[in-house]
Design a protein that fits this description.
A two-stranded antiparallel ribbon has the order 1-2. Strands 3-4 form a two-stranded antiparallel sheet. Helix 3 crosses helix 4, helix 6 packs antiparallel against helix 7 and helix 7 runs antiparallel to helix 8. It is mainly alpha-helical. 65% of the residues lie in helices and 4% in strands.
């Protein structure tokens, strides 16, 4: 499962220019370990994954302006951010429903990881890839552009597995499908289109809001944005979201 985590971390749906990426459920294997074998095992696997992620992203340390900054990057962006995915099984004994427990744990793990990335952004990366002025707000927004889709994808994956595979026993068991689950998957696909549209719009707009020389936030850069392209992408994304939502509604009624 740890190896699967590493492989999935390379399957990137989107790689943002200033760090961060949207992967194909790369957090989920660790969360499943935590759910089946307990938080202790989950945190151990999460820690092991954080060290592997650090080795794969060690070049980021070259941007550190001091030894303290390098240590902060290691702790906030890697060790803590990825270890907390081990809390994904924390709701196993809280919710009787397996899907609810997995979804809740996945959401919590994603939010905790987001918090550490935000702290890193507004401290270590302020003045580098994040403007010094309004660093906290910028870090909240920027890290949300990839962590929100990451959360939604991971939650969709957790919900699907929670409704398809029994994880409670010694072995894995298959759970029969029904129209409600199909409806949920269709809604999840529609949500992913909406999130992808949002991220694309951000990528088209955000680079123009950062002064190339000072690195500070510059609202006048909006004049250079191709709003025609932004509008087309937004409309297409909205239509796809509406189509999948309507189909999901019909499936749910059946």
């Amino acid at each position: 499962m740890l190896a699967l985590t590493v492989v999935l971390s390379y399957l990137k749906l989107l790689d943002l220019p200033y760090g961060g990426s949207i992967t194909l459920c790369s957090m989920l294997p660790t969360i499943l370990i935590a759910y089946r074998h307990g938080i202790g095992w989950g945190l151990s696997v999460g820690l092991a994954n954080s060290l592997l992620q650090l080795l794969m992203g060690v070049s980021n340390l070259s941007y550190a302006t001091s030894a303290a900054a390098a240590v902060a990057i290691v702790l906030l962006d890697y060790i803590l951010a990825f270890t907390v995915t081990g809390f994904g099984g924390i709701f196993k004994k809280v919710f009787k429903n397996q899907t609810a427990a997995l979804v809740g744990g996945t959401a919590l793990a994603s939010v905790l990881r987001y918090v550490f990335h935000v702290i890193s952004g507004c401290t270590v990366w302020a003045g580098l890839s994040i403007p010094t002025n309004e660093a906290f707000i910028y870090s909240l927004a920027y890290n949300a552009t990839y962590m929100l889709p990451e959360l939604l994808i991971a939650v969709a994956g957790a919900a699907y597995i929670g409704g398809a595979v029994g994880l409670e026993g010694e072995g894995l068991t298959r759970i029969a499908k029904n129209s409600t689950k199909t409806s949920f998957v269709l809604k999840a696909i529609g949500a992913l289109f909406a999130v992808a549209t949002f991220i694309t719009d951000i990528l088209l707009i955000a680079p123009h809001l950062q002064n190339a020389e000072s690195g500070d936030f510059d609202i006048t850069g909006l004049s250079n944005v191709n709003f025609t392209l932004v509008g087309i992408i937004t409309v297409v994304g909205a239509v796809l979201f509406a189509v999948f939502t309507v189909i999901a509604g019909k499936k749910g009624k059946k």
